[in-house]
Specification:
Largest sheet: 6 strands, mixed
CATH superfamily: Uracil-DNA glycosylase-like domain
CATH topology: Uracil-DNA Glycosylase, subunit E
Distance between the termini: 29 Å
Shape: globular
Number of strands: 6
Strand content: 5-15%
Helix content: 25-40%
Order of helices and strands: HHEEHHEHEHEEHH
CATH class: Alpha Beta
Strand order of the largest sheet: 1-3-2-4-6-5
CATH architecture: 3-Layer(aba) Sandwich
Low-confidence stretches: none
Structural class: alpha/beta
Length: 231
C-alpha cells in the first residue's frame, strides 16, 4: 500500500512559489493577533495530515491567517476548525471534538484533511494562479493515498480545485458537476460530496448549521464504511 513520500511535508513547508502568499503569511506571523502575541507563529505553508490509509479525504480552501498559519496544522486553532472537528468526532473520524495545537492529541481515523492552497491568503482569497501553483501537492496526495474513495469538498473553491486535480489524474466527468451543499458526484473511482465551508460567514448566518454538516459526514461515513473511533 502506497503512502506519501517521506519528503512530502518538507517540500510543502519550504515552498516559496507564490510571492504574495509568502509575504502575507510571514507578515501575519510577525505582526500577530493580540490574543496570540506570546505565541510563535508557524508562518509557513501548512501540510495536510491524518490517516494515510483513509477512505475519506477532506479538502478546504486554505489555512486561516491566525489558525493554521499560527498552529501549523490546517483547520487547527480557528472557528472553522471548531465546527469541522466536532462534526468529524460525531461521525467517528476523530478521537476528540477540538483541535487547538499540533500536539493536542488529536488523531484521525479513516480521514485525511488538506487544502487546495497551503498558505494563508490575504482576505482568504487565493488567486487562480496561486491555486494552480499549489495544485501539484493536491494531485500528489490523491495519487498516493490510494484508499481514498470519498472526497468531501468544503466550499466551491475546494470543489473546483479537486475537480482540476482529478482531471490531472485522468478522471474527467462527461459534464462538470455543480457544487452545492449535499451535492454528490461520481468522478472516476471517487464520490465527491459538497458542503458549505464552515467559515464564520456561513455558520453565523445560519447558511450552514451543525445538523447540515453532520449529515455530510454521516454520508461520508456510510459511503466509506467502517466504525471509526468510539466515543
Amino acid at each position: 500500500m502506497r503512502s506519501l513520500p517521506v519528503d512530502f511535508v518538507e517540500r510543502v513547508t519550504t515552498c516559496r512559489r507564490c510571492p504574495r502568499l509568502v509575504a502575507w503569511r510571514e507578515q501575519v506571523a510577525c505582526e500577530k493577533r493580540a490574543a496570540y502575541r506570546d505565541e510563535e507563529y508557524w508562518g509557513r505553508p501548512v501540510p495536510g495530515f491524518g490517516d494515510v490509509n483513509a477512505n475519506v479525504f477532506v479538502c478546504g480552501l486554505a489555512p486561516a491567517a491566525h489558525g493554521g498559519n499560527r498552529t501549523g496544522r490546517v483547520f487547527t486553532g480557528d472557528r472553522s476548525g471548531d465546527w469541522l472537528f466536532a462534526a468529524l468526532h460525531r461521525a467517528g473520524f476523530a478521537n476528540q471534538p477540538t483541535s487547538i495545537a499540533r500536539d493536542d492529541g488529536l488523531q484521525l481515523s479513516d480521514c485525511y484533511i488538506t487544502a487546495c492552497v497551503r498558505c494563508a491568503p490575504p482576505a482568504n482569497k487565493p488567486t487562480p494562479q496561486e491555486r494552480d501553483a499549489c495544485r501539484p501537492f493536491l494531485v500528489e496526495e490523491l495519487r498516493c493515498l490510494r484508499q481514498v474513495r470519498v472526497i468531501v469538498c468544503l466550499g466551491g473553491f475546494a470543489w473546483d480545485g479537486v475537480l482540476r486535480a482529478l482531471r490531472e489524474l485522468g478522471h474527467v466527468p462527461a459534464r462538470k458537476p455543480r457544487f452545492g451543499h449535499g451535492a454528490e458526484a461520481e468522478v472516476g473511482p471517487y464520490v465527491l460530496l459538497g458542503s458549505y465551508h464552515p467559515s464564520q460567514q456561513n455558520t453565523f448566518t445560519g447558511r450552514l448549521t451543525r445538523a447540515m454538516l453532520n449529515r455530510v459526514f454521516r454520508r461520508a461515513r456510510a459511503l466509506a464504511g467502517g466504525a471509526g473511533f468510539r466515543s
